[in-house]
Design a protein that fits this description.
By secondary structure, the protein is mostly helical. The protein contains 17 helices and no strands. About 80% of the residues lie in helices and about 0% in strands.
């Protein structure tokens, strides 16, 4: 098994680099493409984002259950890679014409494609990497940081390419997708007969039993509340960001540069975050990340120009690594190993999409009626209420320093437990 550790780390790191490169090229400027290229207003763009979230909601439970059933098999990563390859033709020859002809029909088509590919797909891939990382003793976050670097690499020039022709961005996403198939098959994940036998016995009824667990719903308070409000705030943030510059074109280019810088810092944070979360515990890590989210939302409402709004953008590089590591460690501590992907895909990914489907149209209307700044104050206020509730709802997770469950140096400190912990 040790002989495949480095190979799997490198193959999965390269795989996430290419996937998130494609994701950045395809959807990082989606709100600008919808509003400036396709001329949708705030309410229409909010509706499109809401339908995207519904599409992701269809994919997330399916990916969660299938991932747990497949175990280390590469069925889900291969399927997602094939979808990424279709990005360029889909956006230009299917999505845009349908949105012009019929907004509802175009929104449905886009929701299904984006939901299964870049929205739910990213969560499914992260769950797979976490599973393999725990088997081969490397940190999930130190593979995921290469995804951030891939996103940053694309974001560094996506704004300028968009100003030339948005089609370039979409076809570069497809080009990155072509690399995904050989990369996933470079990984050599040895079968684990015992784990696979447990996965093969998993039934849909077993997975649905999660919904009857109070522990699951206490976890969902933070996900449905704070993180969902943060994501809906972030959807149309690029449009607001670019509006604070002298020209939209300058704002688009600057957003690309800043997005790239933010994500490179985020990549460094993903390397350091496991050390922080081990010291403070996964529960405190979740609360810390959520507090930074609320500060960023409220700070965006107070921003008065390019410098202050750029500072708010950079805060994302701090909270995301802490959040990502804390989520996986919280799940590992409090839920059974055989449900790991389902908890992540349903509790986190599906929970996000459910909230976004409800909130996106409402926030889009708010942007049109009272403007971005006042909307940001409202979002931050509601997020603070959910954060306060989460203080009491989340189960405690002890720091891992000196934990008896500590693994060998360089390995994840928490195995995917076979029985739920108190």
């Amino acid at each position: 098994m040790a002989s495949f550790r480095k190979r799997n780390y490198l193959a999965l790191s390269a795989f996430l680099f290419c996937f998130f490169f494609a994701q950045a090229m395809a959807i990082s400027l989606l709100s600008i493409w919808l509003t400036r290229s396709l001329h949708l207003n705030g309410t229409q763009a909010g509706t499109v984002f809401a339908v995207n979230s519904i599409g992701a909601m269809l994919a997330q439970p399916a990916y969660g259950f299938l991932s747990d059933r497949m175990g280390f098999r590469k069925v889900v990563p291969t399927f997602i890679a094939l979808l990424v390859i279709l990005a360029g033709p889909f956006f230009l020859h299917v999505y845009a014409p349908l949105l012009h002809w019929s907004l509802p029909l175009g929104a449905v088509a886009g929701g299904l494609y984006l939901g299964f590919t870049f929205m739910a797909g990213s969560y499914a891939l992260e769950s797979y990497v976490d599973r393999v990382g725990r088997r081969y003793a490397f940190e999930y976050s130190r593979v995921r940081l290469w995804g951030s670097i891939g996103f940053a690499t694309a974001a560094a020039f996506s704004g300028r390419l968009y100003n030339v022709d948005p089609a370039i961005n979409f076809f570069l996403a497809s080009a990155a997708g072509l690399l995904l198939l050989p990369l996933i098959y470079l990984a050599r994940v040895e079968p684990d007969p015992q784990a696979q036998a447990a996965a093969d016995r998993l039934t849909l009824r077993d997975s649905l039993s999660l919904l009857s667990q109070p522990q699951f719903w206490r976890f969902m308070i933070l996900i449905l509340g704070v993180t969902n409000l943060y994501l809906v705030y972030d959807q149309q943030f690029p449009f607001y960001f670019s509006s604070l510059f002298p020209t939209p074109e300058e704002g688009n280019a600057m957003f690309g540069y800043l997005n790239s810088a933010q994500i490179f810092v985020e990549a460094g944070g993903l390397f350091v975050a496991p050390l922080i979360v081990r010291r403070i515990g996964a529960t405190r890590g979740l609360l810390l990340a959520a507090a930074i989210m609320i500060l960023r939302i409220g700070g965006s409402g107070l921003a008065i120009g390019p410098i202050t709004i750029s500072m708010c953008k950079m805060a994302h590089a701090i909270e995301l690594p802490i959040l990502a590591v804390s989520i996986f460690r919280y799940i590992a501590w409090h839920f059974e190993a055989r449900f790991a992907a389902t908890v992540y895909m349903v509790g986190v990914s599906f929970g996000h999409s459910l909230g976004l489907a409800i909130l996106s149209p409402l926030v889009g209307i708010s942007y049109d009626l009272i403007g971005f700044q006042h909307s940001y104050f409202l979002i931050a206020g509601f997020a603070l209420l959910f954060w306060t509730w989460s203080l009491f709802a989340l189960s405690p997770t002890p720091p891992e320093h000196g934990s008896p469950h500590r693994a060998s140096a360089g390995a994840p400190t928490l195995p995917l437990v076979e029985e739920p912990r108190p």
